[in-house]
Design goal:
single chain; mainly alpha; two-stranded antiparallel ribbon; 16 helices; 50% helix
């Protein structure tokens, strides 16, 4: 294996995400970062807040994985159960349909912006942010927007995704001048690129559908599927879709960015991977895979998600302290060093807050893996604190969304 190929493989592993984020965290603890200082004395308050939010939402501590399906239940309406009732099919076929929906829905989920809202025609509910994007994508899926076969609307396939009509997607998401969805053009390009990537990788996306991942994973793993294998399949299959990213030996690295404290040697030196959308997609696939009777092994191998709710929690509660006022007042690009630093510190801190939450709840890592701490959890606490501190509930640090990162 060439040095470049080895570096690419490493950067696509959860081990690399944790290792590089820990390098940046260590630099922060030594006071050597340019954008943030770290106050670990504020961590107990974060853990207490996460525990309080978790107990309020899940008093029996039966916490689901932090996956996309939960968002289909926004506003107290179980749209997931309603769709499941329509799928009169064997378990594997049902899972393929769910994977079709979840892959497209997650990739359409990058930050919606503060202004966008989705009014659900069937219920009249007005939803924003992730929940709005989830329900909009679900209704578009049910209408056949991602299927090339009008007789089979409840599916997604390479042909339909590659030829996605922007006007149809805009109508489905109610996007327009008076209701702008941030990064809309980027979302269209991403879905079209997804279609091309599926067509180009038939061994991963068997049958030309996102749901073909089930067949790929089952063929190589049987009834026990390693969480890291789910992520690796997604990273390998989706590598071509990410726009304007760092490339190594002609290979698009995706959600991988430069930071001077990232460490490392060889071709991967100075690079810190996050793979936020791909990891969230992996978490989101756990439930449909498990419904087939298969087991997800080592779910804790994946990392926390470096996005503005989790990261905002640490800024808002004083663990991460910006060194300059302009960090809060400037709109930053995803590749700016300050954002890379913020995200890396978030990954490292999520592991630590998860340990503290487990101690408070008397749970082991097996009983309360990180994916459930996130759901219980850090994401919800980050949103709650943001609403308390800012009228729009937005993050404490502004990021310019291109529709493909957060």
């Amino acid at each position: 294996m060439s040095d470049a190929a080895a570096a690419i493989g490493y950067l696509r592993s959860p081990l690399a995400i944790r290792a590089r984020c820990e390098h940046i965290f260590d630099a922060g603890c030594a006071g050597a970062l340019r954008h943030f200082t770290i106050d670990l004395d504020a961590m107990p308050a974060v853990a207490d807040r996460v525990v309080a939010v978790t107990r309020a939402a899940y008093p029996d501590l039966q916490i689901p994985v932090h996956g996309r399906i939960n968002h289909f239940r926004a506003g107290g309406i179980d749209r997931a159960a309603a769709l499941d009732a329509r799928l009169a099919a064997p378990p594997d076929d049902r899972a393929r349909t769910w994977i079709d929906l979840i892959v497209v829905s997650v990739l359409l989920d990058a930050g919606a912006g503060d202004a966008w809202r989705y009014r659900e025609p069937r219920t009249g509910q007005v939803l924003a942010r992730s929940e709005g994007l989830a329900v909009a994508s679900l209704r578009a899926f049910e209408a056949g927007a991602f299927s090339s076969d009008p007789a089979q609307p409840l599916r997604a396939d390479a042909a339909a995704l590659a030829a996605l009509d922007p006007d149809r997607l805009a109508a489905a998401f109610q996007h327009g001048p008076d209701n702008p969805l941030a990064g809309f053009a980027g979302r269209v390009d991403l879905v079209r690129a997804l279609g091309a990537a599926i067509a180009a990788a038939p061994s991963l996306f068997v049958g030309g559908r996102p749901g073909g991942l089930l067949d790929h994973l089952a063929a190589s793993a049987g009834t026990t599927i390693d969480a890291s294998a789910v992520l690796r399949a997604l990273l390998d299959g989706l590598a071509p879709i990410w726009p304007g990213r760092i490339a190594l030996a002609g290979t698009n690295l995706g959600d991988v960015w430069r930071h001077p404290a990232a460490g490392g040697t060889g071709p991967s030196a100075g690079l810190v991977p996050f793979h936020k959308l791909s990891q969230w997609l992996a978490y989101s696939l756990f439930e449909p895979l498990e419904r087939t009777g298969r087991t997800i092994a080592q779910p804790g191998a994946l990392t926390g998600l470096p996005e503005y709710r989790n990261g905002g929690l640490f800024v808002d509660l004083g663990v991460l302290v910006p060194r300059r006022d302009d960090i809060r007042t400037t709109v930053h690009a995803p590749g700016d060093e300050v954002i890379v630093e913020w995200r890396a510190l978030t990954v490292a801190l999520l592991d630590r807050v998860a340990e503290a939450v487990r101690r408070r709840l008397g749970k082991t890592p097996a009983e309360l893996p990180l994916a459930r701490v996130l759901e219980g959890g850090t994401w919800a606490a980050g949103r709650a604190v943001a609403r308390e501190l800012r009228p729009d509930g937005g993050p404490p640090i502004q990021i310019r969304s291109d529709g493909t990162v957060f």
